[in-house]
Design the sequence.
């Protein structure tokens, strides 16, 4: 089993402020690089916040030049970053909940949320998912929030050979116990590590629980944030043994 370092970016999002959130994401990528992170996963709609009423106006083509600072930094620092953004694909008017993969090699991948929460269909259309990623020798399958509430989604990831299931989410305190039990169960059932990147605070009128987590392939908890706030939740596997740490991320004032 190869060495692997991954992290959940538990980030606070500025409501509808794409330039401000890009600057905040850059700081997370820099902090991740300082920790040797190879894959950094942000929460659902991290670049805008969970602002459904503004999503159509904020939606971009994944190739939009506005993301160039993030893409360039990811390539420069050799960190693959998965960021959340409302998107429109070329030739379509539908707004999707996207997880954009900014590759350490300069590439761009697109994952779109397949399963919507009740009410999201008023703004968003269901997406089609996306391909697995390769981080070194590790196969990674992505999920966005409600995707993981469907057991078939994790089953399909395991069927594709995923050793890591990485979910960007928005989970409140009320749903936290049940949702983390599902994710931990997938780790045990499918023998794949599971990463959950939750928002660091209030977004779109929802108070996130924070407490982002990473579980090992046997379902053991490697590391978890203790609460909310801007934090990196980092896990490193070396010779099959996982170790974790939580790192505060200071933002410019």
Sequence:
């Amino acid at each position: 089993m190869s060495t692997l370092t991954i992290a959940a970016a538990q980030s606070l999002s500025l409501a509808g402020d794409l330039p401000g959130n890009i600057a905040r994401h850059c700081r997370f990528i820099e902090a991740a690089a300082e920790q040797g992170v190879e894959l950094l996963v942000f929460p659902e709609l991290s670049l805008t916040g969970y602002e459904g009423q503004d999503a159509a106006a904020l939606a971009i083509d994944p190739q939009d030049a506005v993301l160039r600072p993030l893409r360039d930094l990811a390539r420069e620092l050799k960190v693959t970053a998965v960021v959340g953004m409302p998107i429109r694909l070329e030739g379509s008017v539908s707004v999707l909940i996207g997880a954009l993969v900014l590759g350490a090699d300069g590439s761009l991948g697109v994952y779109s949320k397949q399963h919507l929460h009740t009410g999201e269909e008023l703004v968003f259309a269901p997406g089609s998912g996306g391909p697995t990623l390769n981080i070194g020798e590790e196969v990674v399958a992505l999920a966005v929030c409600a995707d993981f509430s469907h057991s078939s989604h994790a089953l399909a990831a395991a069927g594709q050979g995923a050793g890591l299931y990485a979910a960007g989410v928005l989970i409140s305190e009320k749903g936290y116990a049940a949702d983390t039990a599902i994710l931990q169960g997938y780790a045990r059932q499918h023998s794949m590590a599971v990463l959950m990147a939750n928002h660091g605070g209030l977004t779109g009128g929802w108070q996130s629980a924070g407490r982002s987590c990473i579980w090992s392939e046997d379902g053991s908890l490697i590391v978890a944030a203790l609460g909310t706030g801007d934090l990196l939740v980092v896990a490193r596997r070396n010779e099959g043994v996982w170790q974790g740490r939580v790192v505060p991320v200071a933002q410019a004032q």
User: Anything to note?
Assistant: The chain has a mean pLDDT of 97. The chain has one domain: 3-248. The two ends are 41 Å apart (CA to CA).
